[in-house]
Amino acid sequence: MINRHTRPAIVTMTLLAASGCGDNQHPEAAIALYEQIQQEDYQSFARAPGYETRKPSDAPHSDHVDIFINSVVAEALAADETLTIWPEGSLIVKDGYTDGGELELVAVMDKRSDGWFYAEYFDGDAKFSGKPDVCTDCHASGADFVLAFGFP
Ligand code: HEC
Fold it and tell me: For residue range 13-41, what is the model confidence (pLDDT) as tens digits?
């Protein structure tokens, strides 16, 4: 029976099935990025606009999410001028929790010179990194778009 408790597991399985065993295109860069966000203590970052507290999510990123933005994103959001692109160095981290409040995954977007680097970790291990189709199918809309809070 599919109910709200089994759904996250099924979605995770679907994501994995869609790309074989995940799609970890840049394992070393993924490890480095994970170490970086731990060192920077990302959970102490500002929260994304509209995500002042943990929120239920309909996205395939667990049932509840916390979304954190680094100072580059926070300053871009606070700037008076309208940006057309998120600056390099923008970093967004999303923690996905189960209904039971257990941390299930950590999803990261890091803006680099060649665009967003995507990574998703389960128990600290990257299953996806680089520009996996499974991420860009939803996230790359042609414009420089952040799903949780929109354009620059
Ligand atoms: C089926 C569509 C879908 C797929 C596939 C998807 N995402 Fe998301 N993602 C979303 C939505 C919708 C949000 C907005 C926040 C929410 O509702 O959880 C989001 C939010 C995020 C955020 C917070 C910043 C933002 O854009 O809002 C990160 C980081 C993120 N996703 C990373 C990833 C990574 C990494 C992958 C690939 C492993 C991925 N996502 C795959 C739909 C998707």
Answer: 444 444 447 999 999 999 999 999 999 99
Q: Which of 130, 117, 149 is nearest to 19 (CA)?
A: 130
Rounded CA-CA distance 129/22 in Å is 9
d(CA 133, CA 120): 13
| Cβ-Cβ contacts under 8 Å for 21 (sequence gap 6 or more) | 127
Q: How far apart are the C-alpha atoms of 88 and 121, rounded to whole Å?
A: 22
Task: Tell me the two tokens of residue 73.
Answer: 């994103």
| Cα–ligand 1 centroid distance for 25 (angstroms) | 18
Q: From the alpha carbon of 146, which atom of ligand 1 is closest?
A: 26
Q: What is the number of the ligand 1 atom nearest to the C-alpha of 119?
A: 35
Q: Residue with structure tokens 């809070």? A: 149
Residue 71 is encoded by which pair of tokens? Answer: 């100072």
